[in-house]
Amino acid sequence: MKKxxxxxxxxxxxxxxxxxxxxxxxIGYVYVDSGAMYRAVTLxxxxxxxxxxxxxxxxxxxxxxxxxxxSFQPAGADGVQHTLLNGEDVERExxxxxVSNLVSPVAVIPEVRxxxxxxxxxxxNERGIVxxxxxxxxxxxxxxxxxxxxxxxxxxxxxxxVKELREKGENVDYAAVLANVKERDYIDSHRxxxxxxxxxxxxxxxxxxxxxxxxxxxxxxxxxxxxC
Length: 228
Hints:
The chain is of the alpha/beta class. 48% of the residues lie in helices and 17% in strands. It contains nine helices and ten strands. The strands form three sheets. Strands 2-8-1-9-10 form a five-stranded parallel beta sheet. A three-stranded antiparallel beta sheet has the order 5-6-7, with helices on one face. The chain has a two-stranded antiparallel ribbon with strand order 3-4. A hairpin with a 2-residue loop joins strand 6 and strand 7 (88-89). The longest helix has 17 residues, at 174-190. The termini are close together.
């Protein structure tokens, strides 16, 4: 089988990161969580007083971009690939609601997207990569051999997000999480720079009623077809 690039796009909390990570592990590919990269930039902005109350100091953040280093640590005993911000493991911090509430306003800044897209393309130079996000199949890797667009209802995605956060010890309200999911959908779909949209040659996977094993079987079947 030839090595290919696999682009998995979709809405927030649709489960695309979990399936992308698991698929990469099953087929021996490198996994890159592009959403984690935007979350890391958002965390940097929060820590340095560049973001608060839903607003971002764009000029300050743009000026700081050269100082922001993002990399990934291979999965350890917990089976999770950790995100590093300037060498610091921030995997837990970037998954909080505080970051979730600001990541979309950060992600719409063109300079932020240009910087991270360039970095993402570097990750894919050798192929044999699985990357998930909002614009992987349309902007980052428009020539990817396998493109998947993951869809699920806002209500199902909010339930998954609440479960995930509560398992991590966060006390969250379902209504607040649902509102956040819908707001992020709108911002991601209406931004001027690389909006969330389904690539014409992407295969849609609606996982409202699918188990994780069923999703994996579906993905592996498509992978076999695309990598022949």
